[in-house]
Amino acid sequence: MPELDLLIAGGGPAGVMAGLLFARAGCKTLVLEKHADFFRDFRGDTVHPSTLELLRELGLLGAFLKRPHDEIRKLTARVADREIPLADLSHLPVETKFVALMPQWDFLDFLAEEAGHYPTFTLRMEAEVVDLIVEDDHVAGARLKDGEEVRARLTIAADGRSSILREKAGLPKTDLGAPIDVLWFRLPKEKTATNITGGTFGAGTLVVEIDRGDYWQCAYVVPKGAADEIHAAGLDSFRSDVARAAPELGPVVGTLTDWDQVKLLSVSLDRLTRWWRPGLLAIGDAAHAMSPVGGVGINLAIQDAVAAANILAGPLASGRNLDSLLPLVQHRREFPTKVIQAAQKAVHDRVLTPLVVRKAVLTKVPWPLRLFALFPVLRRIPARMVGLGIRREHIRSPDAGLRR
Ligand SMILES: Cc1cc2nc3c(=O)[nH]c(=O)nc-3n(C[C@H](O)[C@H](O)[C@H](O)COP(=O)(O)OP(=O)(O)OC[C@H]3O[C@@H](n4cnc5c(N)ncnc54)[C@H](O)[C@@H]3O)c2cc1C
Question: Which tens digit of pLDDT belongs to each residue from 6-16?
């Protein structure tokens, strides 16, 4: 029998949350993360109400909210010079009626620190997994870049949308395609009394401006593969494009003085049709790469981790064979994944492709958006989809009482 119960490849939101929950249930757990720290390009800093609720159920919400963060309670679209309220989170049936904005590395540091209170939890940084160990058609662990072999009774692939483990495991995948990429950059702003996160729809352009207090985190949406052309046209041309797309950014766009300040984030939308094989389970983006539309990927990754722990942690801690239980995790999480990906694909096809790829010019507010302006009650629908998601998970995995 291997010494480890669980090996998790990937220290993103899915991997670290799963690590915390399985270790809490008494499973000897090792998380391997290839980077030296959690500091990486902006990949979403949003902690949604459903995740905040999970932290509350774990008794961690107070400590989490003491860390510096911003709060989004409303989302707005700016179209044809009009402000259209899109989502209002104030009616959500949970205690925390806002999306907390916290740099992802702070969120991961927080989860890893909490997990570190369990003697059953270990996190190793700069540990890149490159292959699986397979014995008698059963995954028995993973091989690291330096050749080290780590064996465990269960391996979780939480290594993100370019997952090496899902590829090595030969898990079948459906690719839904993505017509866009995103250029990310920060621009300075004056601090305002309320958070004014929103999107500006222009002539063939969309810029999402996430209010981070004294700066905007901007997402400039471009057609897939267009970044090279934009780069070749030069920084001056890019600055003018941004100022045209979102005139409110015009006065500050000059602070972009080097391409190093602009990061390309490539968007994909896909999902595995089988999330497991004996000894291995994929969760988070490794099971289903999410588009940034709606900003729900972190949330979904966390929900997967909770469902996996709810179904598997007790049996794993008590030494049971898990093979018949692995499909239950996919069964539980596939439906919300499909619904959210279908919504993201609809936005790709019906909004982003016409606007950003075919360069449509919006001269007036489209009628569905006008309905949001006219009937405030409608704003509760996107608020619920984004804030709580579908088939919300609750902490049901056991607490073995090991916290020190
Ligand atoms: C442009 C863009 C913007 C986004 N914005 C948002 C947003 O605002 N809000 C939101 O909720 N979601 C957003 N998302 C989606 C979100 O980032 C992902 O859905 C979410 O991070 C998935 O979490 P994860 O833990 O499954 O994977 P990841 O966050 O990708 O974590 C995987 C981890 O595994 C590590 N790793 C990879 N390979 C290996 C290996 N071989 N060995 C060891 N470690 C490895 C990586 O370093 C990483 O730490 C965005 C996505 C994109 C592309």
Answer: 999 999 999 99
